[in-house]
Amino acid sequence: MPDPSRRTVLAGTAAAAALAGLPTQGHAAEARHPAYRWRTAVIGGTGFVTGILFHPAVPGLAYARTDIGGAYRWDRETARWTPLTDHFGWDDWNLLGVEALAVDPAHPDRLYLALGTYTQPWAGDGAFLRSDDRGATWHRTGLPARLGANEDGRGTGERLLVDPRDSDTLWLGTRHDGLLRSTDRGATWSAATGFPATPADTGQGVTLLVAAGRTVYAGWGDADGTSARPNLYRTADGTAWEPVPGQPAGASARVPVRAAHDHHTRELYVTYADAPGPNGQSTGSVHKLDTATGAWTDVTPAVPGGTDTFGYGGVAVAARRPGTVVVSTNNRWSAVDTLYRTTDGGRSWVSLEDTAVLDVSETPYLRWGRDEPTFGWWIQAVAVDPYDPEHVLYGTGATLYGTRDLVHWAPRVRGLEETSVRQLLSPPTGAAHLISGNGDVGVLYHERLTASPARGMATNPVFGTATGLALAAAKPSYVVRTGWGDHGNGAFSEDGGRTWAPFPAQPAHAGDGPGPIAVSADGGVLLWAPTNGPAHRSADGGASWEEVPSFPQGATPLADPADPAAFYAYDTATGTLYAGTGHGRTFTARATGLPAGDSQFQLAVAPGRTGDLWLSAKEHGLYRSTDGGVSFTAVGGVRAAYTLGFGKAAPGARYPALYLVGATDSGPAVLCSDDRAGTWTRINDDAHQWGWTGQAITGDPRVHGRVYLATNGRGIQYGERI
To answer: Is 67 one of the annotated active-site residues of the chain?
Structure first.
């Protein structure tokens, strides 16, 4: 999770150095901005698609929202998703989570987004965006509420609606601040008068808003499942709200998850569960309301029970085929989630998973180390093309599947990248220029940057989330990784990351929290630092491990790239640099009095050099040591430094190129220096910021000017000079 403290860039490096009694290395000037082209390294999805919306009046126009990766527009001509929120930078990292989106049926170019990833106080209030050109440009308004696009209930909705009586009037359902209303297209907001449900500091609040003719319905997620505490309300005039009479009650109808209106039959379909999801659901149901007569009908396709527990999630109607509806199960782990489809208004249903043929050749990671992919999980977003009832899309916890014939399904994620990236390696030799450690999808070996890794996730073992990734500097064919694995939490590769084998053994506590790992320059020694225990070393390829008592608890080990006997670690609790000698057997303190108190400080060592250390100390700036950590000098002109990496030296230069996610006096940016931090150039621009990018960065040791950047929800971005 991003650290909220990064939202403000604090004191400059020189001031921080003076407070610490450290020398300052000059004052780096910022050079002219070079021309860079930024693209996304293709993985394909990998995150939770929480909402899909076809425009009802424009063939081929659709939008998608994600929990941490922003919003996208589908461009039919290119068959790709176009990201719409990459312009948000550090200070706005919380706005990469999209709580809800809405389109205006009467004005096809209008698009609205409600943004906010977390409702905790440190995240700040949400924001509202409105566009008159389908997301090409935006007008932004602050919201008097916090939104939770990456919290429980993020797959419900939509919580945002254009009023069917007036295109200038918008409704926004919040989790803890009730129902909001705007009469000027989101420029200003106020509490909706007459809405009877009382918001709480915890809970879901408004889970959905949907129009049925001129009537607006609102789902309420904080009821207890009894008829005495209703969870579905409606208004016919925008002022007076009432509970919908006769609404279903009981555990299977506790939380209204989503709703869709069939305007031909005048029936409103509502999916329910006993929890908002995407996790924690054990029962659910599907009901329809005849909005003309007020009659309710239970049309649940399959009733959860016994070992087959689940809730219901997405629901969509075919706009041009009356009585044709698709709903999804959710959190159905025993029998696998499915889509149910009816063509007779819910009297009979067919499971589309039963006949589905899945083709994941474009994104092989979706096999998850098995022979065949599964239909999906966390299915709470479902959409039916209003111009083609057999064109169906549904989102999962990892991708977006689509079909044109209800049988053959394939990912529809070109351009949509939501990976949370943790580690990056660019080997100096070998077929792959990039190896990445990621949340949820483990380690990936990128033979090409323009295609999802052909080998999928690294297997033997398969990791969910990677926690460590390192290669032997003098033997780059030897790569090691750690993470949450299915058969062990550590593995090694002797062919540069193409194939893997688990370590024969692993140290104590590695199963409780794998933590990071380092490997000596010659590949002879492994140093593994589990999160919840002491560091251990191995000199026999992981067959046996011995504790290293002198290693600072919680630190990240780092190997010297030129001296196989040397390791380093930075104790963030005390601001002390430790050096490991004797091939990692003993660690002793060297420099002290450095910035302390933050676990996200990062230590890097220049390739091919012994003891040339760089410390990224967040708002305290950037520091360098050329004596193995005996002393450090603050780098002038760098006000903040979050992560630093190295790439191929510029023509004629003898020192590697430096790439930094940090800030100079000109503000936060992705920066490059070809002269050892003497001058810095900004290499991204205001349209390419991707929220929080302080996790990892590295240059390519074989291509000068190419840089790889880890994001928290927008995958791997890479830039090249043009």
So the answer is: yes
